[in-house]
Amino acid sequence: MPASSNHGDTIVRTSSRSHLDGDNHGDGDSLGPEPSGESDSEVENNKFAFSPGQLNKLISPKCVGAFGAFGGLRALEKGLRTDVRSGLSMDETVLDGTVGTDGVVAQSFMPPQLASVEGLAVKQPQDRFVDRRRVFGINKLPKKKLKSIWELVWIAYNDKVLILLSIAAVVSLAVGIPQSVRGTGVEWVEGAAIVVAIVVVVAVGAANDWQKERQFAKLNQKKEDRYVKVIRSGKMAQLSTYDIMVGDVMCLEPGDIIPADGILIDGHGVKCDESSVTGESSLLRKIPGDKAYRAVEQNEDLKGLDPFIVSGSKVEEGMGTFLVTATGIHSTYGRTMMSLQDETEITPLQVKLNVLADYIAKVGLTAGLILFVVLFIKFLVRLKDIDGGAEAKGQAFLRIFIVAVTIVVVAVPEGLPLAVTLALAFATTRMIQDNNLVRLLRACETMGNATTICSDKTGTLTENKMSVVAATLGTMSRFDEQSNNTAASTRGPAILSASEFVSRLSSSIRNHLLQSIVLNSTAFEAERDGVTTFIGSKTETAFLSFARDQLGLRPVSEERANVNIVQIFPFDSSRKCMAVVFRMDCGKYRMLVKGAAEILLRQSSQVIQHASNGLEDVPLSGEYRAALDTIITDYASRSLRCIALVHRDFERWPPYGTSTLESDGEMADFEPVFKNMTMLGIFGIQDPVREGVPDAVRQCQRAGVFVRMVTGDSITTAKAIAQQCGIYTPGGIAIEGPEFRQLSHDRMDELIPNLQVIARSSPDDKKMLVGYLKRLGETVAVTGDGTNDAQALKTADVGFAMGITGTEVAKEASDIIIMDDNFASIVKAIAWGRTVNDAIRKFLQFQITVNVTAVALTFISAVTSNDADSVLSAVQLLWVNLIMDTFAALALATDPPSSYVLNRKPDPKSAPLITLTMWKMIVGQAVYQLAVTLFLYFDGHFIFPEWNSRCMQTVVFNTFVFMQVFNQYNCRRIDNRTNIMEGILRNTWFIIIQVIIIGGQVLIVSVGGKAFSVQRLDQPSQWAVSILLGAFAIPAEILNSGVGSGFPTVHAFEEGHGLGGVWWHNRYPSASVDTPVPFYEFSDPEIWSEWEWSQLYPGQEEIVRYFEFVDSKWGLSKDISFGTRVTDARWDNIRGIWSVVTRIRDGVESVAEARYLLPAMGFAAKKFVPEIEGLETFKGIM
């Protein structure tokens, strides 16, 4: 009966040893209370031998001597009322009696057999382990106190722009309130409007932070609430980490992040990475607790002995079980987390915007100061002419000051913080719906400009729904569920169905095959939703499903229970295989190995001859080896994963003369015994390509994102699947990991631009690839699911972890978690990343246009006015600048990804926040708006003589507002395109905002009166003029977009790839793709650097020489100058022209035929048509 269910009093006696080595002093006090009298050292009505505080002394700090003083693993087992073989009892509720610590434990300890504790998972009822919960607590940290709404308000208010606005509000109210007392009573509205601006921005920002903080709290809770394997009542169970109890027997596997402290019970090659917990950089090998205790008892050197499993550390290698001794706040990880505080993350985009805001604020202050100085000089000049005495003169001065302050307020982009907040909040929320869980906000921005993706295959590009569809046992027997495949069905002996295939196997072969599948596996059975299923690696579950369906597999626990397993070699990504050694009934030992077929074939020297005749083997001759190689190639070419099963028998274990592990002389090293194997068979496992992945890859390629596949599969399988996905294309390079690792730097630089597939790769290969790509200036995204992928995920600009198959280590190292493990979700992340960046740029283009126009209009009208009054009052400007910009942020920052967002190349890292095209649009629109408003202000009475000055000022204000309304439509495109209405119906917010702005403007003009310094517009012509001149902002922008776009140009299209990219990055490293380019630089080979020449592909040097000839013959340098944009023509046009000219030169194409081809290639090509007959001269030059 497990100790957890014992009744009555139990005495646990501890070791009498008191003197240990210097590293383990103070062990005699291990069971005593802390000197500080901490509450967790003494627990009222403690029914266990130890308190949480006493157990802490085992690991904090690690102390083998203290472990010995406790009495070793056996004393812990009894003291915690558990059983190291069967774990806690599922029936435990309230415990009877107590356990004492006086006495000596004399029984010897026998470690459990790992293979005998398999069973169905059971959900833990809530009323279990009452006393255990009360004494040791649950494995859950107290909820972190979230910031209150008022704290978030204060944080949101601590923004430089908002502080500047606050100063302006104080000054404005200080000036406006006295004026209101003596004037119309509405002067205070100016300051109040600024206060409203601050309140709106702070309220929205704080509310969003409040919601985001709680959303991330739920996310973290969900992330930490993962499932782990424990043994309860002798059966394997999957439990939430929150349900782990002190006394549980928990399983360890590679990739696990350990959720609780404990002592290793038994294991095979367990190594842990504790760098994130203790700072220890090297992997630490763990030894079973009983061996450590024996060392203490025998006064051996304790240095280097480590049976302690530390929470928060990561299992890098091996597998085993450990006894949980501390959970929750009492564990190492819990104590660390309780002492940490999260810091607010500042994204790169926010850094750029802060710099821009500072610059704009300085410009605003400068403009306000200049205006104040100019108006103050005018005030002094006309001071003696001002009637009304000192009060009138004081009022005139106050008007000057108000105008200057208004300039400052208008210049500050108060909508900018809101736009950033809205764009990021909207994107991250919607990305969750697209199965992208953003862990770091910066990834949301960076992903939009990714230039290359290094993707895993299994589960990302494929469905990760594996099944055994083909197999060859020995040299003759085979089945193939894909027998309709012509290539497969015409090769070799008759191909059977799976059932026919199994029916012809001898009983010994069938039994051996069953053992090879069941014993050499870490997968197990569990019950989910009332259905028994296999849990574990998809490859292993595929084998187990095959065994259940075709070989009559009984419950896995039964199959494993009667087998004496003596050693396990866990799967290792470097050797691509795993193994298990068990003792047979005859007394011999058999090692079963499962892994990559071509690797296992190289280590085999025998092969089963006839699967129908038993385990008789024959030497693996060259003919047989060639036949098996052909089978592997055939399977791989059909995108099947090739897994081989081999074995070898030994008289004793470890074999005589074989090297053993340093930590355990009874365990053999793998490499010396992994030879002279007997090949049982080769299996083909199908993992279909996910639906939609080829389309997603094409979208990436169209978006300028180079997709590479990094996989552990064979080169043939990798190529086949990469071709199906559209990743491996003609001219692309596929290479195996071992060869990739041996490449020189020069060879690496030569291959990487065209490298599309790395097969048989290790995690180090992925990290190396990422490092090289980043050094070439690429923005790299990487997917990963394994523990060893963590370094690559961290090294990449954006790391994607798999939400379903990913280990906890991989998720912790990632920036974004793909909840459905689907490559198509990565494409959605790219689209959202670009949408966020575009949203900010759209708003900036609109914001700066409004600010430039408003500041210039205010400045000019105030300086030219006799009484220093601006054409737009302060309240009118605040309506335009605050309310409209706040609404504009909501309208422009909530656009979903457009259909064209993936139709352009990614922006380089050095791209400016405001591109040349945006500046052109800003300046052009500002010029139009200023021309219209100034014309109406100064000369409008000549056209509309019946309108009085107050009416004309209202028309100017109304026109100005409607120009901003229509300019919002212009700003929906920032790429110089004219289709501004595309996708507008998908953005409900945009339409609602337009209705609100227009409705608000009509109300202001109709009933605003003195508060807004307007006169009601009663004539339809007044409204018609305002709306029509406002609407003309759209055709004005269309005309503006054509400026500088009508010339043939060179397009450095391939950022970082090919001829254009080489020249572009080296010549203009800080420029964006919109920067004007001098053609003569591109066409003059003399100014090309040696490095640029070295980066060209074969044949590209001829193209550069050709440009030199074209420039000298037709003088393109005169037509293509610095004023030309590089994005108008495609490099493909230039390359196409070269192709046609070359075909004419070589006599393949006639001049007449070429005349029909060239015009189709765009405007750049048409220039060559009139001169095509002159190519005879060109032929001579070439």
UniProtKB/TrEMBL annotation:
UniProt-listed GO biological process terms: intracellular calcium ion homeostasis
Protein name: Calcium-transporting ATPase
Compositionally skewed regions (Basic and acidic residues) per UniProt: 18-28
Membrane topology field: Multi-pass membrane protein
Any one Pfam family match given in the protein's UniProt record, by short name: Cation_ATPase_C
Matching PROSITE patterns: ATPASE_E1_E2
Domain named Cation-transporting P-type ATPase N-terminal: residues: 129-172
InterPro entries xref list: ATPase_P-typ_cation-transptr_C, ATPase_P-typ_cation-transptr_N, ATPase_P-typ_cyto_dom_N, ATPase_P-typ_P_site, ATPase_P-typ_TM_dom_sf, ATPase_P-typ_transduc_dom_A_sf, ATPase_P-type_domA, FAD/NAD-bd_sf
Organism, as annotated: Aspergillus tubingensis (strain CBS 134.48)
Its biological purpose: This magnesium-dependent enzyme catalyzes the hydrolysis of ATP coupled with the transport of calcium. Transports the calcium to the vacuole and participates in the control of the cytosolic free calcium. Catalyzes the hydrolysis of ATP coupled with the transport of calcium.
Biased composition (Polar residues): 1-17
Record localization: Membrane; Vacuole membrane
